[in-house]
Design a protein that fits this description.
113 residues; alpha+beta; three-stranded antiparallel sheet
Length: 113
């Protein structure tokens, strides 16, 4: 399966006058980042896509709740995803989220948000 490659702003990447394509592990990583960057109900074409930002964007967030929220986003892409590692690091007024997930096919992805 193939999809358009997108940059950090969500724009399609053009190379040599063609839209760049991604597949396999890169497509999965890109899709995970897109779902986790969408507030639940935000996208009018699929109001069930995304995660509840209010679980993350608050003072003194609960890391267990954030982990559950990330898991819910992963399951929207592949019902077999399991988190193998999950770390939240507060940096000033931001939160760095790093995790590794694996699906039943053995594909493993590393994501930093």
């Amino acid at each position: 399966m193939y999809g358009f490659a997108i940059d950090e702003n969500g724009d399609a990447i053009i190379e040599n006058n063609d839209i760049k394509l991604v597949s396999d592990k890169e497509l999965i990583k890109q899709t995970v980042k897109q779902v986790l960057s969408t507030n639940l109900g935000e996208w009018w074409l699929n109001e069930n896509e995304g995660i509840a930002f209010n679980a993350i964007l608050k003072k003194n967030p609960q890391y267990d709740q954030i982990e559950d929220t990330v898991k819910s986003g992963l399951l929207q892409i592949d019902k077999t995803f399991e988190l193998t590692s999950f770390v939240c690091t507060p940096i000033n007024r931001t939160l760095k989220i790093e995790f590794t997930a694996r699906n039943e096919s053995g594909e493993e992805i590393d994501i930093t948000l």
